Amino acid sequence: AGSYTLSDTLKINDNLKLVGAGKDQTIINIQKAPLGIQVTADVDVYFEGIGFHYNATEPGDIMQFSAGRFNIIDCDFQKAIYGESSDEANPYGYGAALFLTGQSRGTVSESSFSNNGLAAIELLQSADLELLDSLIENNIVGLYANGKNQLRLVGNEFKNNSSNALQLRGTATATVQDTLFENNGALNADNNLAADAIRISDEAKVEFETSMFKHSPRYALSLSNQATVTSKGNTFENNGGYFEVNDLTYGTILLENDS
Asked: Backbone dihedral region of 133: left (phi > 0), alpha (psi from -120 to 50 degrees) or beta?
């Protein structure tokens, strides 16, 4: 237990197992911008019971995998700072708690992501993710995937993310089960960009099963281009409604183009 300072980027080039006393008891404070922890080698990484808090003053990501495998259990990721990036491998800028690219793959379970300035989790290229029993709350974007990604999301809660809770593009595919989406997205008011709770576009495919979608200010689910969604046994409750500022009424689901 205790609090520790990471004053430079930790570059992991060998297998690593790091176990703390719990995500609220063992805290690693990241002081180095633009990246706290970096994995570029074909290695196995295991983190358990650790809070990773971004405390640098300049924009950056908390953790980045461009290769290797990971298993993250009972960890907390907070306060990555958004900012533009000149790195071609990071085209949307900094501010992700967990940035996955290349052919990295792994599992995150019983963990939490909050107050991250770009996204809780960002996937590009062929990175894959299994996300289990975790809380994604008060970020800008919850989870963003744009590539040939494969995702399995089970038993999670996406709450109060001010843009999309889930945005899939490219040819990403996902299965989502037993997951709560609550109060995600925003109307175009108070200087926020309009955003639907879940946005699926390009040729992405998602199957939602026994999940709950509620209290989305705009559409709970919107599809565009050639996106495909299958819905089985889900509940949609109190989504959309009338927005007086622009005199528009939003429904629960929006289909555009050939989706």
From this structure: left
DSSP single-letter state for residue 193: P
The residues near 247 (Cβ < 8 Å, ≥ 6 apart) are none
Longest dimension (CA), the chain: 57
- Report, as ranges of residue numbers, the positions in the chain whose pLDDT lies below 70: 188-192, 242-247
Q: How far apart are CA 188 and CA 203, in angstroms?
A: 26
**Contact status, residue 180 vs residue 212, Cβ threshold 8 Å:** yes
Q: What is the mean pLDDT of the chain?
A: 94
The DSSP call for residue 140 is S
In the block, tokens 């405390």 appear at: 55
Q: At 26, phi and psi to the nearest 5?
A: -115, 115
User: Are the C-beta atoms of residues 173 and 149 closer than 8 Å to each other?
Assistant: yes
